[in-house]
Design brief:
15 strands, 303 residues, alpha+beta, three-stranded antiparallel β-sheet, globular
Length: 303
């Protein structure tokens, strides 16, 4: 921005910029350094002092006085503002999922960046964050199957999870609401699911149930994407959660179905089984789950 003074003279009114040599006139000029006198449009040094020259001397004095007053009170100088908090660069996910996430986690306490409600937890060395989205957060264990995103030996945290409409469907069942109680009841009554255990539980300040699920021995429905093996879809995402989970032979699943206001948060402990036996991974995950804390268990108020 250019600030000027208008001075009356015999030849009319002249607008003289109030920025001396070396002071940026606007943000685009900042950082270019002092300008030379020839650049500033200076005249010949031996020219006789006519009316215009005397007018310039007076004007220069006024300019100097204004600049001095401005400097004394800390105004008039253009400075680069400090970066706003919104400009802070968040780390990009190294996994194929993309977005932001913390990636490799040091031992100690951490918090979600994008997932809400904000979640804090503690891990020992060997854990990595591969997904951090508005509705889903995934922790992977480095010592197990490769945690390249959604897969591997993982703890997944998802909000507003729904029950699938039918076999092989990714759409939520409109007859089953999004509350934790409705989801829990639908899983209990699903003919494709064997409920190995079902107990009340509290996790991260939220109440609900912990369930161990497996595909039923008599379930033989094959889905287009299940590689010609029976599959039983049990969870599908909504309102920002990116989850579609099914059961298959030899791959049981532990779920924490938790009440979160009028909706739910589902925490899944999902062992791959390729490197670490499924039971052993559940034991590794248990100390991490005990540190979970969700910021505000009262929100949202609607499904």
């Amino acid at each position: 921005m250019t600030i000027g003074l208008q001075v009356s003279g015999a030849r009319g009114r002249t607008k003289i910029p109030c920025a001396p040599e070396g002071v940026a006139r606007d943000m685009d000029d900042a950082g270019e350094g002092p300008r030379s006198r020839s650049d500033m449009g200076g005249g010949h040094a031996d020219a006789p002092p006519g009316p215009a020259a005397r007018e310039t001397v007076v004007t220069t004095g006024i300019i100097a006085f204004v600049i001095g007053i401005g400097a004394a009170f800390g105004v008039g100088m253009i400075e680069n503002p400090p970066p706003a908090e919104a400009d802070v660069m968040l780390p990009e996910c190294e996994s194929s999922v993309g977005g932001v996430c913390a990636n490799e986690l040091s031992a100690g306490e951490h918090s979600s960046l994008a997932f809400g409600p904000r979640m804090t937890f503690s891990v020992p060395e060997g854990w990595v964050n591969t997904v951090d989205q508005e509705g889903s957060y995934v922790l992977g264990f480095r010592g197990g199957a490769d945690p390249g995103g959604w897969g591997g030996d993982t703890i997944g945290v998802h909000r507003s999870v729904r029950f699938p409409e039918g076999p092989c469907s990714v759409e939520p069942d409109p007859t089953v609401s999004g509350t934790a109680g409705a989801l829990h009841s639908a899983l209990l009554s699903d003919p494709a699911v064997d409920v190995l255990s079902d107990e009340p539980a509290t996790l991260g300040g939220l109440d609900g149930w912990v369930m161990d699920l497996a595909i039923s021995d008599h379930w033989d429905t094959v889905c287009p994407w299940s590689h010609e093996e029976p599959a039983a879809p049990v969870l599908t995402g909504s309102n920002g959660s990116q989850i579609y989970r099914h059961l298959s032979a030899g791959r049981p699943l532990r779920l924490y179905v938790l009440a979160w206001g009028g909706s739910n948060i589902v925490v899944e402990v999902r062992g791959d089984g390729a490197v670490i036996p499924l039971g052993d991974f559940s034991d590794l995950a248990a100390p991490v789950l005990e540190t979970f804390r969700f910021d505000d268990p009262r929100w949202p108020t609607e499904t």
